[in-house]
Amino acid sequence: MGNCFGCRDESPAPPATGKSPPSSSSWPNKEISAGSSSGTSGTSGSSGTMSGVSSGSEDYRRWPSTGADVGGRVLDVPKLRVFTLAELRAVTRGFKPEMVLGEGGFGRVYKGWADERSLNPAKSSAGVVVAVKKLNHESVQGLQEWQSEVNFLGRLQHPNLVKLLGYCGEDRELLLVYEFMPKGSLENHLFRRGAAFEPLTWETRLKIAIGAARGLAFLHSPETQIIYRDFKASNILLDADFGPKLSDFGLAKSGPAAGRSHVTTRIIGTYGYAAPEYVATGHLYVKSDVYGFGVVLLELLTGLRAHDTNRPSNQVNLVEWARPYIASGGRKLTGLMDQRLGGQYPSKAAANAARLAYNCLCGDPKSRPSMDEVLAKLEEIEARASARGSQDALPPRPAPAARRSPYRGSSRP
Ligand SMILES: Nc1ncnc2c1ncn2[C@@H]1O[C@H](COP(=O)(O)OP(=O)(O)OP(=O)(O)O)[C@@H](O)[C@H]1O
Ligand SMILES: [Mg+2]
Q1: Does 149 share its domain with 271?
Q2: Which residues in 384-401 are b (16+ Cβ under 10 Å) and which e?
Q3: Based on the structure, what is the number of domains in the chain?
Q4: Does ligand 1 have an atom closer than 6 angstroms to the CB of 181?
Q5: pLDDT winner (highest mean) among 71-75, 123-127, 287-291, 333-337
Q6: What is the pLDDT of residues 382-392, one digit of tens each?
Q7: Is 162:132 a contact under the CB 8 Å cutoff?
Q8: Of the four listed, 97, 106, 121, 218, which is most buried by Cβ atoms within 10 Å?
Q9: Which structural domain range is residue 36 located in?
């Protein structure tokens, strides 16, 4: 839900008093308040309730409740469990440091256990694992991002979006409860080293790219029309089978019609991922997300961070550095591919994926493909590779040509 540069595009939200329901969010264009007033007060009466979103918006009611053609659903009202702080303390064993899964711009994320049906606090042996994100009061994020998460993610259901289960707003404490994603973030798997982070295979990388593209295509679909605005490796969480789900809707915006832009007064984003037109002018397009997707695709191919000040100055920005190498494929691309792949990838598929990343990273937003087009291309790359794989699995033909690894250990460009 974070931002690494710039600051909020609106003035900081007032501290939550615990008396008022979460409100606002720019989706769907008019004020929405999530939760009943009792639901967020944290009083004992709120425990275990499911909140709805009350809305006075006509636009809101006109929204279709399903987006079956894109495999997702937009709920009329979020169905979220309203937790008390005491419950979440019990769920996370008192927010113990040992329970910390990670930390981002909003605050720490804790592991916890809750009953599968009621989501009441549970013993570890009896419950399901959940992830609880708790606001750090020193964070520049706060009420606005929390409301945005509840209002957007609380209404969206899609296999490639992380499930928000509930929230808590009590006194100044703001918390969000999610389904637990056992493999953590893509960022950890791509860039961290250690026994817990085995190198991702080519097939897994492609699977992650396809699932993330599907999630983003759903957000951009006519049913949904959301600009996600924070597409990056740390916001792609992975299930037990490395199935990807997008998380963090704190920066999401209700999107303008295709081709039109939404103007933000101040720029929010993460170094290396934000589209150039957005950084330069604050004009945010649906295609600004496509740029972010291109950056992550490049990270999947190269195993290199989008922005890394530890690299030589001409290589700090991955896109600028890699752009000349990904346009053409071939040997130059081979040198740029992640060495942790050990050369185990189909070179044609890699060249096609690199070309796709190049198109997503086009300076002119209009020339970037739509997420539907990106998804179709990635599926084609996968289908071709698996068709080839099954051919390879057939009994050997006479004198099969030996396949040379395309990776020759050359130093990177
Ligand atoms: N639902 C979840 N299941 C499992 N782990 C999670 C979950 N949500 C977050 N995490 C872990 O907590 C870390 C921090 O997540 P968080 O979204 O707060 O920050 P971030 O994405 O790293 O940064 P930013 O604030 O810029 O978005 C993640 O990298 C991940 O390892
Ligand atoms: Mg995040």
Answers
A1: no
A2: ebeeeeeeeeeeeeeeee
A3: 2
A4: yes
A5: 287-291
A6: 998 888 776 65
A7: no
A8: 218
A9: 10-58+65-179
